[in-house]
Amino acid sequence: VDELTEFLRFRSISSQAERTRDVAQCAQWLAAHLRRIGLKHVQVAPTGGNPVVTGAWLQATNRPTILVYGHYDVVSPEPLAKWNHDPFDPVMRVGALFARGANDDKGQLFCHLKAIESILASEGELPVNVKCLFEGEEEIGSKNLARFIEGNAKALRSDVVVISDTTMISREKPAISYAQRGGLRAEIVVCGPKRELHSGTFGGAVHNPIQSLCEIIAALHDRHGRIAIPGFYEGVRKWGDEERAFMRSSGPCDEAIRRDAGMERMWGERGFSVAERTTIRPALVLNGIAGGGVKGHEAVIPSCARARLSFRLVPDQDPQRIANLMKEHIERIAPPTVKVRVRAESPVRPALMDRRHPAMRSAALAYRGEFGAFPAFVRSGGSIPVVDTVYRILGVPAVLMGFGLPDDQRHAPNEKFDLTVMAKAIGTCIRYLFLSAGPHRRDVYARGGGNFF
Amino acid sequence: VDELTEFLRFRSISSQAERTRDVAQCAQWLAAHLRRIGLKHVQVAPTGGNPVVTGAWLQATNRPTILVYGHYDVVSPEPLAKWNHDPFDPVMRVGALFARGANDDKGQLFCHLKAIESILASEGELPVNVKCLFEGEEEIGSKNLARFIEGNAKALRSDVVVISDTTMISREKPAISYAQRGGLRAEIVVCGPKRELHSGTFGGAVHNPIQSLCEIIAALHDRHGRIAIPGFYEGVRKWGDEERAFMRSSGPCDEAIRRDAGMERMWGERGFSVAERTTIRPALVLNGIAGGGVKGHEAVIPSCARARLSFRLVPDQDPQRIANLMKEHIERIAPPTVKVRVRAESPVRPALMDRRHPAMRSAALAYRGEFGAFPAFVRSGGSIPVVDTVYRILGVPAVLMGFGLPDDQRHAPNEKFDLTVMAKAIGTCIRYLFLSAGPHRRDVYARGGGNFF
User: Fold this and answer.
1) Whether A206 contacts chain B with CB within 8 A
2) End-to-end alpha-carbon separation of chain B, Å?
3) What are the chain A neighbours of B307 within 8 Å (beta carbons)?
4) Which residues of A touch B211 (CB under 8 A)?
5) Lower Cβ count inside 10 Å, N or C end of chain B?
6) pLDDT tens for each residue of B350-400
7) What residues contact B189, with CB distance under 8 A and at least 6 apart?
8) How far apart are CA A414 and CA B304, in angstroms?
9) Distance CA B126, CA B434 (A)
10) What is the mean pLDDT of residues B244-272?
11) What percentage of residues in chain B have a pLDDT greater than 90?
12) What is the pLDDT of residue B242?
């Protein structure tokens, strides 16, 4: 906990340009830590953006190689007023460690480091080869990661990538995410008058960029919550009753999702459960909007308004095609009385893993050993760009062993990591490395009570 | 110019709470200046908000009393980056004085003070009684002015109020505004989740407050630019061909308005000219919108989004009725999956003055004496709350002698006051006081070439 506290003190907020130095210092600290626990070949590798931290232990001849991925950057702690304390001065309280990044993802990646350190300290060697890959741009779309992996494909060659950046069903029931939605980010900028205009003098005769932007945004959904971009749903895979029944039995129920969201009423596409809306169905989310002023109230027609939005995409949607459809749709509806610019970036393809892969079995057994329960195999609504990137470049599958709790406030004020879960997470990581060493025996799984996926 | 420069240095931005002290210091400076030029009974009167500065010269027995109204508060200078220099460090350049408030309204009210000072210095007395009333909240809706005038109705009793806070047609052609639109400000706040939610985990199943706000805003206009609030246009006075022809002949042409706005294409309600859309037709203007973040790009569903908007109203619309219609409309269209709050404030009734009133004739003659041309009688798109307030409480008509140029950048970066116009404006104010002293002789007007309204 003391070491993690040190790690959490770095304000490694990747979305804020003024934090570039904090991010770099955090990477240096992490690299030093890798060296200290016994990893070799440790590097802080520069990229076009924030550095990637790598390290490895490669002395398990003829054994599999596990790539451990994590990210040391965090999202902004805003709104600060809603935190009970400084988000970068970690506090231990009611059995949990509270800080920005405590869970997402500094805390979770740290469990793998503590697992490696434990085994090396007690055994003198690891049962498998391990390569670590920790990036500093996950929260801003992993912009430079693909190029880094492409340039270091040989050094990163491995049999599986293990990633801990997701959540469990509850503190008793772990979960492995076998599907993540893809993503695409976009910005829409609407410009009207070259300068702010007096709203009395010109109001009624000049197209207001805020109004025009709102009209464009309103035209992105129909009134039933479906995305109204023509062609958007073409290519969305239809799942049969069997998979939908599996999802119902293994994933969280709608009521649990509603409670986690803290909402009175959910919303979205008709004909699909809340769980399905957040996993096998795509979404378009407005992340931010700004134009003119809302603090004072001045009589102006602003000259510009902008919005940021992101798509969550599902198999078999192609982010590039979605970007084009969105641009065409907005061009079609944009009125001639304002200037509209649309920019799309950070495309991430949706990912889907085989639940029956041996590496999934190792993970399931590791979880069961610590938590006393096999994990649920669930789909995630979020995007983990590295999953597709690693599969595409290195050809290896990902195992997503998450250790977050639903109320850990990831991306929100008062983020935390439960200390009991943390201890079990380290144990799970230790077990995973040992279980990955040998062949996976059917009878071991059978003892768990049958088919868990 | 040196004195006005001192006056302009005060950051008397009424929309910014942190500027309250600057506003108060500006009021004190103004009061001291009134005393210095020879006005009596000078006071800085507290209100519920920013103080009102008053002063008077009442020794013209049996002569009319002129109330001079102005405001010493200014709008925020944002965006600062678009100014060529510090907006509160006035700069003289190409025959003009550049600063926030140079024209609106510190510069214009200052012309009346210089006129009074000149006459007192040369004649030892004024040809009429003068009362000054300078407020510090015009740019935020004159919230406390009505109560102040009500409480001081006897002290403010007068025959006419003269206000210089409008613009001329050009540097050769003055203008008197005989109609101003009314106003109403509103704020719409849409709240969704209690805290920011991860847009991957919940995207598609939680109603996004930005999206919902945009849908509400989009439903405030139809696609032809008309306001879509049911009942909104009931009560809007229909003007006959005669008045519309007068407006065409006296007001600016559509092309001139387009040029002033710096727009390639104008916008608005069909069936009305651009000039009409900004004067005899009402408008709904979005002033600001904000929600989530647009600087970084983080994967969150924000918990709230808000917009500020304002109405421009025309005879015979009642601001209170419009507030109710808007609230009912938004309540009707607000979805049950978010919480929507609407607040309306700062109602201002539209104002319409008799172009044939003797005080108008004095003003027209005063202008002609300095500018060599009779003023155009025009309608303004903006609201000047004091016009209705003074008429309602004191029962006196207003004469709006404006001295701004169309390109003076009122409410915009690089606001200025042309020095040649300023000199003529002071002369016009001097003439106006003398012309107000005596009866208005038809033959004086006849010399001007006939019927100027």
Assistant:
1) yes
2) 34
3) 210, 294
4) 217-218, 220-221, 286
5) N
6) 999 988 899 999 999 999 999 999 999 999 998 888 898 999 999 999 999
7) B304, B305, B306, B340, B341, B342, B343
8) 18
9) 8
10) 92
11) 85
12) 92
